[in-house]
Amino acid sequence: MESLIKFVQDEFVTKKEFPQFGAGDTITVYYEIREGEKVRTQFFRGVVIQKRGTGTSETFTIRKMSGTVGVERIFPINMPALQKIEVNKRGKVRRARIFYFRGLTGKKARIKERRR
Predict the structure, then answer these.
(1) Average pLDDT score, the chain
(2) How far is CA 49 from CA 2, 6, 65, 83, 93, in A?
């Protein structure tokens, strides 16, 4: 049964090419918003907290600070409204899911940049 599901996903779901990124990276996600008949592009820039799932069910969570309030958004990697993803900074973290980042404020909430 799983092989049949995987076959259907591989054949019929269109995959977009996005750059490689992981937890700790600062990325900008551009996506379409439909308001009635109008379509506009909006972006969401923040730190990747986690990536989860595989294949068509893969998602990633981004966290940004909007004033003093933390805002998190979960994006499916196969969302048709996703236009592009830009990697702004590569972060150096030791974990795949950095939920401890939610509790940090000020200078403690910095992530060191990974060397190339």
Answers:
(1) 90
(2) 29, 27, 13, 21, 10
